[in-house]
Amino acid sequence: MDEDVTDLYREFGDSRLPPGQRETDDFPVLSKSGTPSWTPETWSFDVWGAVDDERSYDLEEFRGLPATTQRQDFHCVTGWSTFDCEFTGVPFPTLAAEAGIRDEATHVLFHALDGYTTDLPLSECLREDVLFAYRLDGDALPEPHGGPLRVVTPHKYAYKGAKWVDGVEFLTETERGYWEQRGYSASANPWEEERYG
C-alpha cells in the first residue's frame, strides 16, 4: 500500500466517523438503477471539455496510467461508513495533467455507464486521494461496487464518487448531477452533514 489517508478527517472535523454516521464492516450496494452491462472490448473512458488535449482510453490503456493504492474511509449519505478500504487507481490530478486543464475550467462532471452524473468543483477534485479506482482490497473492483472503474471521494459523501464511471467532463460553470438535481447537496461534506441542498 502506498498511502493511508484515513486521517484526512482532521481537515474537516474532530472525529473519523462523521456525525450521523454508523460504522459497518459491510459494504452495502446502492445504485440508482442496478448494475449496467459492459464488455472490456468496447469499454472506453473519455476526457473532454475545457482541456488542451481530449483523451479516450481503452481499459488496458487506462490501467496502464500511473496508479497508487490508498487506505481510505467511505461515507454513504444514507448513514453508514466503512473504514479502511484499500483502493487502487489513478489519482485525479494524474489524469488531469494528461489532458491539460484550461484556465477557464472550474467544475467537473463525472459520467457513468448507467447515465448517472455527479458534479464537483475542480478544486475539490485536484486531491491525490480522489481516485479513479479499479481495485478494491487487492482484487478487481466488483461490478456491483462500480467495476470496472469508479471514482472515490473520501472527503465527500459517496454519491460524489460515480460508479461505472466512463468519462469526465471539465466545465467552465457548474452543472448539477443526477442526485443534485433531485435535492441532494452540491457540496456533500460528511462532517457538516451536508446531505441535502
From TrEMBL:
Alphabetical list of Pfam families matching this protein: Oxidored_molyb (PF00174)
Region (Disordered): 1-36
Residues annotated as domain Oxidoreductase molybdopterin-binding: 35-179
Annotated protein name in UniProt: Sulfite oxidase-like oxidoreductase
Alphabetized InterPro entries for the sequence: OxRdtase_Mopterin-bd_dom (IPR000572), OxRdtase_Mopterin-bd_sf (IPR036374)
Species whose genome carries this gene: Halobellus rarus
